[in-house]
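Regression test attached.
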Amino acid sequence: MELLPRLYQLQERFGYLPVEQLKTVSAETGLSVPELISRASFYEFFTLTPAGEKSHIQKLYPCRQAGTLLTPPQEYTWSAISAARAKPQDVIPTIDKAGLLGRSGGTFPVAKKWATTRDTQSDIKYVVCNADEGEPGVGKDRILLEKNAAGVIEGMAVCAAAVGATKGYIYLRGEYADLRADLEQTIAKAPLENFQIEVRMGYGAYVCGEETALLASIENQRGEPRLKPPYPGVAGLYGKPTVVNNVETFACVPLIIDRGADAFRSLGTQEYPGPKLYTVCGAVKNPGVYELDGRATVSQLLECAGGGTGELQAVLVGGGSGSLLPMGCLEMPMNPAGCAQWGAVLGSASLRFISKQESLVTVVRELTEFFLHESCGTCVPCRVGLRRLSELLKRAENGRAYPEDIEEIQHLGEHILATARCPLGKSAVTPALTLVKNFPEVLA
Amino acid sequence: MKIVIDGKQIDAAPGATILDTARENGVYIPSLCYLKNINHPAACRVCLVEVSGQNALQCACSTKAAEGMEVVTDSPRIRLARRKSLELMCSDHKMDCTNCPRRGGCELRTLAKEYEVDENAYGIGRRKAMTDSSTPYLVRDNAKCVLCRRCVSACKEQGIGAISIDNRGGETTIGFAQPLSETDCVGCGACVAACPTGALSVRDGTKSVWKALLGRNKIRTAALVSPYVCQQIGKMFGEEKEQDNTGKTAAMLHRIGFDEIYLTGENVAVCPAWRTYLLKHNAAAAESLPADGQPWTKLAEAYRHEYQNENVHVTIITPCTAAKGLGNGPWDAAITTTELGEMWYRACVSSFTACEMWRTLPEEMFDRLPIEETDKKTYTDGLGKARELFAQGRLEGMNVLACPGGCLHGGGCPRPDSLVGREDEQK
């Protein structure tokens, strides 16, 4: 049995990791006890002293509006797999024609990513589905796995056929463990043939949503992001070529293969085609997941969610590490180009509306503390910088900021942005930096 | 492959990093977490440089040289960024420089000075104070740790893995998963030698020595000194390279106040760290080792015999941190090269005067006692490799020394060359 799942069995059995048990594991694996503790203590779900029973399950957002992605056919036919197997060489050109961009945050062209892995020679290749949705204020992947797990699995299988992969992993967020049984059942039903999919659980580490950290976690290591290059497409899981895509990205694939690139392009914009899931939360009447497409604007999504509860003052675009924008951005289209006009990124496509009753500084300070806690702890700017940043924000929150603090928040934020070791560290300061940029009056 | 560093054309080996290439060519780029071939987590963000075609500053330690690449290693922008990284590190570090065992050898302090860091720039919050003094060998002080992971890698390199990185995010700590005494630690001191700050230091054994030297009751004191100490001690007093300082060391020991001083044999016949390792993992092999293997045991016995009617105190001075764990023997204290240097600092009031005094010391002679020595073939490629070879039965009759490079580079040395990140590689 793999190391981390094995340790988690001990955790569940004893309620913590007893050193005596770790010694047994150490003798069998050849890893020292401190090494085992090092790996386990990275993850939230492991404890070294007895901890009370705790459920980690999170069901935050209901599905409010479903389109083609969230309404698969009653009788799933797995036709995309057959089509991909018949002509694997056609898959990537079709995806390219459809213009599918990664749905995780990076918005990288999917066809390009797959082509890299296809063109890299290797005895084994992997397809990994990133279902470690930990971004604050985002719940789309969970809804997708509840409603259309078959589509996700089929998308992975199509990818495997196109790049020549034989092994797949779904890295499922630990807080979504209740989905696991259904997911495994669907995998068992799928006609996967030479492609195997294994579900691996996360154990409560936000940073494992970063693709290289996720791969490290599957390898039973601490979930610390690795330096790129090499990119996973060339050297990923166990150093082998690996495609890592988000749940939603894989779910789009069967739609393209079944209905053709043009049908896919009939939704969304020229640059950002296809259906799109949005999470709307915060001070709105009906928070939840909405399926629209890349043409949706902020005001449209706000309307879908039944409007604000109370007077709104700001919106956080693109998840917890997103940009804090003033309400003037209502007409902003929720696609990469639209967000770029406001200096924001689409990220995980969520909108968190903030009412005038909330303090923006508090919101940003809480997010900064979240990222400090969830940082992998390797590099100085992220590990120490975020702590100092949250202390500065705390002072501002209590109205005790020195005049130079505001400048320092910006300088420190920019330093972290420029020098953090991985994309998560860099994006962790976006709320603070956009607060300074768009809402200077609340800090003054 | 050609790259340009600070306007100079330089040949770079394929796959080499900017940092390695620069250092091989005498270009100085500061770094803290980096140890060549051993540790390169790209954690400290001090070796930042400008690279052509990249908007953001890049870490020289993790960026590979590429054909035609242009690198700038110093500019106002670079200095500001390096300074900020150092400022952040200092904000999380207990600034205890005047009393710190690392003293002038501290890399954080050297860099902080070089970059004129305001160590109180964020005058708030320090890391939680935790110490581990569970072993006789060393002390770990969490408040001074900058989480560079050099000790973790050094310990892994030795094949032990007693030091771990624990927790995550702001709560990340190094080395507190278990008390060190409960791990497989053998006391080789590789971690102490690797530490850039005072977070790891050898356990101070000088108190009883000072007491014997300065106490009211007249005690005859002897120092039994490894020849390797004489070669390394100069580094404590501003010398850049190791060199034979036997005469000066003798003079220093006399001035510190030892009555008799002797040189011991060079290598230990049984490395105490290796013995500890075998005791933990292969009891049968440990039993087949000679009961006593220290080059100073016979000498200490001879000394005690010589002055059997007097009250004597025998101090062993070696580069070996593991010797501190040897327990009862015919000696009273075991201190390392760095501790001897510290004693000289104290004897001369400050490290500054100690360096000056050292320069003016005359050459003096060690005393002699007739003892016989045995020398066996030694294995000195480090404990990590020795473990593997031993498991394959390929170290029969060999005297395994745990420290990479042998006792000359023991854990109690002032910054062993095998781990030095800066001056020596520059040369």
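Expected vs. actual: identical. Residues 252 and 361 of chain B are 7 Å apart (CA to CA).
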